[in-house]
Write a structure and sequence with these properties.
Length: about 350
């Protein structure tokens, strides 16, 4: 395969929530009418290009919005924690992807148990993860799909071209596993990326399509070619050979996406404010902690304490316990935010150790 040189790097450290005594610092209010309109618009754009949508629930972390995404045509969801995935399964969502290439063997047993009850695939970034993953699946009597996680050919975030073929062959031939395809994501990490979001999406999608063709040329089916990103979605949609677009932020959106031109300010379906004046400093600190690279520094909250769109929705949701949701008739509901991380098993008599949340 004639591919650009790519060097694999370790996955970014998952975000860890703020201490729980700060979790009540912010109130977050969702406009459900806007969120529903955003879902329908995003799905229509994908379906017009023959793409399915996989909803990454990190962009809202609620059961009700995930169900709305499925009802709008999403093929399934992505989530990073097995325990959270089971909550979505209980809500009737049966096509689930674990969207982080975890390396902890204790997690594989959780995934294998989950896979008995749904169609499950997990991101894998190196063939070395496969033996333990397969052993867990066989022990549970389940089957786990493997999605090779690649980069974009220039700033690789996962599987190198040299490892891709070996990973696919090994996954296809190992009992307990099945090769489900590949997945790519390239984050926007530099200030100038806001202006280059179409090119970033298109470049990543082209590389994914190229890798899929390489696998097929070696006799390996590659049913899923998934590329992720809300701000880069237009570029992803422009490339032939992609089967699925994954995205998280598109139901609620945020101020950073509006500043990048990925949505209009009036599309943003969530606002945040300090819970009380007493919480203002903590609320400002939390919001300032979660910005896109192109967003200016300085205060986020206005002096009068009025609600504002959050700078960056996905990491912010790890800091919030509940969404206040206003529907079309003005009725207000309170939806819990699913943030509980999976927990590593411990010896009897010791406290459990939670894994990192993401």
């Amino acid at each position: 395969m004639n591919t650009p040189t790519a060097t694999a790097t370790a996955p970014a450290a998952p975000a860890v929530p703020c201490p729980r005594d700060r979790a009540e610092s912010l109130t977050a209010t969702v406009d459900l009418v806007r969120a529903q309109r955003n879902i329908e618009r995003f799905h229509a754009a994908a379906h017009a290009r023959g793409l399915t949508v996989r909803a990454h629930v990190k962009g809202h972390r609620t059961l009700a919005l995930a169900v709305r995404q499925i009802e709008a045509g999403a093929v399934g969801i992505s989530v990073t924690q097995a325990g959270q995935a089971r909550r979505y399964l209980e809500a009737g969502i049966t096509d689930i992807v674990i969207a982080h290439p975890w390396h902890d063997p204790w997690r594989f047993a959780l995934f294998a148990d989950l896979a008995r009850d749904c169609t499950l695939a997990v991101h894998v970034d190196h063939p070395g993860s496969l033996p333990a993953l397969a052993a867990a699946a066989r022990a549970a009597g389940s089957s786990i799909g493997v999605l090779a996680r690649i980069g974009d050919g220039h700033h690789a975030t996962a599987t190198t071209p040299a490892d891709l073929l070996a990973l696919a062959e090994q996954a296809r031939s190992t009992p307990g596993l099945r090769f489900a395809g590949l997945t790519a994501y390239q984050g926007m990490t530099a200030p100038g990326d806001a202006h280059n979001r179409f090119a970033i999406g298109a470049r990543t999608a082209r590389y994914a399509a190229h890798c899929a063709e390489h696998l097929r040329a070696h006799g390996l089916p590659c049913p899923t070619v998934s590329v992720g990103g809300t701000p880069t979605a237009a570029g992803i949609r422009s490339v032939p050979g992609i089967t699925e677009i994954g995205a998280g932020a598109y139901p609620l959106l945020d101020a950073g996406l509006a500043q990048a031109g990925a949505c209009a300010p009036e599309d943003i379906a969530i606002t945040v404010a300090p819970a009380t004046e007493h919480h203002r400093q903590d609320a400002e600190g939390i919001l300032a902690q979660h910005r896109y690279p192109w967003q200016p520094r300085g205060a986020v909250l206005p002096a009068d304490g009025s609600p504002v769109p959050p700078p960056h929705i996905c990491p912010l949701l790890t800091e919030i316990r509940e969404l206040r949701v206003r529907g079309a008739g003005g009725r207000v509901q309170h939806w819990p935010v699913l943030n509980t991380p999976d927990t590593a098993p411990t010896a009897p008599g010791t406290a459990p150790t939670p894994g990192p949340a993401r």
